[in-house]
Amino acid sequence: MLSERQRMILNAIIDDYIRSAEPVGSRSISKRGDVTFSPATIRNEMADLEELGLLEQPHTSAGRIPSIKGYRYYVDHLVTLDGVGDQDARKLRTFFAEKMNHWEDVIGHAATVLSQMTNYTSIVLGPEMFSTTLKHFQLIPISDSSAVAIIVANTGHVEHRTITIPDGIAMEDMNKIVNMLNEKLTGVPFYKVKSVLHSEIAKELSRYVEHCEEILTLLEQTITEEQEPKVYLSGASNMLTQPEFKDVDKAKSILGMLEETQLLMQLFQSNPGGIQVKIGTENALEAINQCSLITATYSYEGQSLGTIGILGPTRMEYGKVISLLNYLSKDIALMMSRWYK
Amino acid sequence: MLSERQRMILNAIIDDYIRSAEPVGSRSISKRGDVTFSPATIRNEMADLEELGLLEQPHTSAGRIPSIKGYRYYVDHLVTLDGVGDQDARKLRTFFAEKMNHWEDVIGHAATVLSQMTNYTSIVLGPEMFSTTLKHFQLIPISDSSAVAIIVANTGHVEHRTITIPDGIAMEDMNKIVNMLNEKLTGVPFYKVKSVLHSEIAKELSRYVEHCEEILTLLEQTITEEQEPKVYLSGASNMLTQPEFKDVDKAKSILGMLEETQLLMQLFQSNPGGIQVKIGTENALEAINQCSLITATYSYEGQSLGTIGILGPTRMEYGKVISLLNYLSKDIALMMSRWYK
DNA sequence: GTTAGCACTCCATTTCGATGAGTGCTAACG
DNA sequence: CGTTAGCACTCATCGAAATGGAGTGCTAAC
Fold first, then answer.
1. Residue nearest to nucleotide D5 (CA to C1')
2. Inter-chain touch A145–B341, beta carbons under 8 Å
3. Interatomic CA distance for residues A263 and A311, integer angstroms
4. How far lies B325's CA from each of A138, B85, B281, B292, B332, in Å?
5. What are the strands, taking DSSP E only, across chain B?
6. Which nucleotides of D are covered by protein (CB under 7 A)?
7. Which of A152, A247, A326, A334 could make an S-S bridge to A135, C-beta 3.0–4.6 Å?
8. How far apart are the C-alpha atoms of A136 and B225, rounded to whole Å?
9. What CATH number was assigned to the domain covering residues A134-224?
């Protein structure tokens, strides 16, 4: 348990370090105004905080910097949520006022705004269709042997893919089945589509359509095919403004990682809802062991749909970012419900 | 006009410099084997080449590096197209063998492969719908006041957007019009849609549908709305491996630029078809004045559809990249025709 | 418990000279 | 006359040594 004074000092050090990116000395803390003790006293406390593992010393004659544990304590107990500034709020309002055609545009654009406002990197996971329901399913023939399958969800989300139609299958038969599927599957959540298909539809169809099995399998694959949510990335180059990544090799390993969509999705795997902060080595990936990742989920009708996140150096403006993500995730939810008023 | 010997020397210098990224001295050229003159002779020629503006000297006691003009001469007269290596060819074959659902996936994936094979940054402009024709148009209602419009092109390309339906317009009326549009517009190239809409359809409809004007305007907007081609970017972090960008500020200005889709599209504006090489300051954007951009267009049925490009330092392996882009752009065309055999 | 004072540590920056790669010029060579 | 060997000169780079200064830990006094 820390004393009040220790907490003040820890807070002051982290604040300073977040601003300056340089080890903080006892003298500068003493001069800040909010901690009115002499440098010597502060030095003593700092030594204690270091013993507790909350601070570190790059070398004997330097000031202190926060350790991972120190940041963790700061985030859990000390950080003050600044709220969203006037300017940012205005920016967000104009952002949400913009008319956008695609669901995905909203999310993608949100990523851009987020990275611009924070000067960090933003990573946004697009909505998953998993929990939504099927609204419409359709095949549009393109040539003799190929067609475009279009799948619309109740959220207005559209998926489409090109499929190849095997030889010996008549378009008519396909259409019969598609019509049937539409009747039976509309309103069914995607995660149930597969079972409904097998239990209710398969037998009924088999009577009056040739090649039924084959067609059904094809369509089933088409509808249920794993559709990984899209990942939107913005402001990756902001990483380069951080002094901790002025070393090109470090920067490269992070930016390289950011290009691999697969890895990014891994980062977002544990998804308990609400705001989550992962500091330094708390992150699974080694490439971002010097970074912190703050994530928030956005939801629609109580269902968590996707995640928005900010990646920055461990020396991140936690207060600002947490407030912002909180604000934005709620606003996105709001916007979605308005969208389908 | 350069003498044969000068061309050999210029070629040798550029080759060496592309490999090493360091100023090339007369001695190392002399030792390469393909130029059998003494260092002193080579020095004389180098001085001449410098006077011609083809070479530069970072400082008096350093070797020479190619100037923009030097690279230009190299690309126009000297470069040997290596062809595509076995390994790369194999990689491309497996790439094209993969089954992909979306048209866009092919293009996006091509960008990835391209950047991996070259270790440069690849930029790919997705297919434009401009020159394709309309195959199918449809509205799917999502809620009382919103619907998803789906537009399918003859290439299998799908566009969709969410539209808001104004109060006082019945879904029925909408559907009538949509059906009509499908009849009349199928097979019409997108760039003609607007005029056909006005000349052939407007008057005919106005007779038997209420609110005709309003609906038509809405749909027209929906169909013809500027759809900027998507930009796919891959391997941006490869820039950081280049010694010329070890300075973080330079790297930042380039990577920052790469994040702005708008700017990237600018880069691709002049689009004469075939392979195009822009070296250093020949590029419009200042941010890439130290880079070269090589682009190729890919086409379908004679129509140029989009562009694939490689961005790297001016010290780029021109021969390799040009061969590769040439190969790939043709393969994409091939693939597209096979897709709709 | 707090603070002033002081010796000490160690990084960062500068300075300086040595090193060496590379040049331009001149003179000799075939 | 083209080519080449030789040589003095330039200048970036590297390492060692010197300097400065920020910050600490400890002790003793308040």
1. B40
2. yes
3. 14
4. 37, 13, 22, 14, 10
5. 55-56, 65-66, 121-125, 134-141, 146-153, 158-164, 231-234, 275-279, 291-300, 303-313
6. 3-6, 9-12, 21-27
7. A152
8. 24
9. 3.30.390.10
Contact criterion met (CB below 8 Å) for A306 and A128: yes
Q: Give, in Å, how far the C1' of D25 lies from the CA of A271.
A: 46
Element (H, E) at A147: strand A146-153
Q: Are B299 and B333 in contact (CB under 8 A)?
A: yes
Query: A86-128+229-339 adopts what CATH topology?
Result: Beta-Lactamase (3.30.450)
CA dist list (Å): A167 to A97, A143, A325, B29, B292: 50, 13, 52, 62, 47
Q: What does the DSSP assignment read for B48-98?
A: HHHHTTSEE-SSTTS-BEE-HHHHHHIIIII-------HHHHHHHHHHHHS
Instruction: Return the CATH number of the domain spanning residue range B4-78.
Output: 1.10.10.10
Q: Each residue's pLDDT tens digit in chain B (341 positions)? A: 899 999 999 999 999 999 999 999 999 999 988 888 999 999 999 999 999 999 999 999 999 999 999 999 999 999 999 889 899 999 998 988 887 778 788 889 999 999 999 999 999 998 877 778 899 999 998 888 888 999 998 888 888 988 888 888 888 888 888 888 888 899 998 888 888 888 877 777 666 666 777 888 888 888 877 677 889 999 999 999 999 999 999 999 999 999 999 999 988 877 777 899 999 999 999 999 999 999 999 887 777 888 999 999 999 999 999 999 999 999 888 887 776 65
Residue of B252, B28, B173 whose CA lies nearest to A241: B252
Minimal CA separation from B141 to chain A, in Å = 9
Other CB atoms within 10 Å distance of the CB of residue A78: 19
Set of chain B residues whose Cβ sits within 8 Å of the Cβ of A256: 237
Q: How far apart are CA A154 and CA A157, in angstroms?
A: 7
pLDDT given for residue A205 in this prediction: 67
Is residue A327 helix, strand or coil? helix
Among A154, A160, A237, select the one facing B158 at the smallest CB separation.
Answer: A160
**Torsions phi, psi for B248 (to 5 deg):** -60, -35
Q: Kindly list the domain boundaries of chain B, sorted by start residue.
A: 4-78, 86-128+229-339, 134-224
Structure tokens at B135: 């195959």
- Please enumerate in sequence order all residues whose Cβ is within 8 A of that of A11, keeping only pairs 6 or more positions apart, or say none: A74, A78
The answer to whether the beta carbons of residues A153 and A129 sit under 8 Å apart is yes
> In Å, how far is A266's CA from the nearest CA of chain B?
20
Q: Which of residues 151-170 of B touch A (CB under 8 A)?
A: 152, 154-156, 158, 160-163
Q: What is the pTM of this model?
A: 0.91
Which residues of B fall within a CB distance of 8 Å from A341? 143, 145
Q: For C8, which residue's CA is nearest its C1'?
A: A61
Tokens of B300: 């379908």
Mutate to test the interface with A, among B98, B100, B101 (most CBs of A within 10 A): B101
Footprint of strand C on the protein (CB under 7 A): A 5, 37-38, 40-41, 44, 58-62; B 23-28, 39-40, 43, 46-47, 50, 57, 60-64
Tokens linked to B269: 């504006």
Q: Hey, what are B185's tokens?
A: 């517009």
Q: Does strand D come within 7 Å of the CB of A57?
A: yes
Q: Are A74 and A16 spatial neighbours (Cβ–Cβ below 8 Å)?
A: no
Interchain proximity A160–B160, CB inside 8 Å: yes
